[in-house]
Specification:
Elements: E1 2-9, H1 16-19, H2 30-34, H3 45-48, E2 54-57, H4 69-76, E3 81-84, H5 89-98, E4 102-104, H6 106-111, E5 117-121, E6 126-129, E7 134-137, H7 143-151, H8 154-160
Parallel strand pairs: 1-2, 2-3, 3-4
Antiparallel strand pairs: 1-5, 5-6, 6-7
Length: 164
């Protein structure tokens, strides 16, 4: 899987309430959640994010509650991938379960700027900052978790295998 998009840069300790504010948790409709994604952090995000764009953030992205709404909102907003220094453990697992590609890379976080164009190859873990001409290797994602992403998430993977 390959992705190419522009960077949306966020800081460290981005909790799930900042990704999708709790006042919108009365719905699980992905399209509705997408319209409020990152609303309190950057009110223009939902209107300006383009299909394929990439979020780059500091450490502990997705900390806070264990709600699945956060990766659903990000994915439904059109974000193709999230690259962070590290992820909260529950958000990490929820992202794969919901089919949201995520990668960890200190170098990308240290060098990427808002608006840079980045190419990501999930299979090899290579990340290319096209704008700055830099190449990095992300921490590897286990093959079985890459399969979850390719299937569209855990439930889609189970359906495709005929288990339900």
């Amino acid at each position: 899987m390959k992705f190419k998009g522009n960077v949306w840069k966020f800081g460290a300790d981005m909790d799930t309430d900042r990704i999708i504010p709790a006042r919108y948790l009365n719905t699980s409709d992905p399209n509705e959640l997408a319209t409020h994604c990152m609303e309190d952090e950057d009110p223009s995000f939902a209107a300006k994010v383009r299909h394929g764009d990439i979020i780059v953030a500091g450490k502990n992205f997705g900390c806070g509650s264990s709600r699945e709404h956060a990766p659903i909102a990000i994915k439904a907003a059109g974000v193709s991938c999230v690259i962070a220094r590290s992820f909260a453990r529950i958000f990490y697992r929820n992202s794969f379960n919901m089919g949201l590609p995520i990668l960890e890379s200190d170098e990308v976080v240290d060098t990427a700027s808002q608006g840079d164009t980045i190419e990501v190859d999930m299979d090899s873990g290579e990340i290319h900052n096209v704008t700055k001409g830099l190449r990095f290797k992300a921490r590897p994602v286990p093959p079985f978790m890459q399969e979850l992403i390719k299937a569209g998430g855990l439930m889609e993977s189970i359906r495709k295998k005929g288990w339900v």
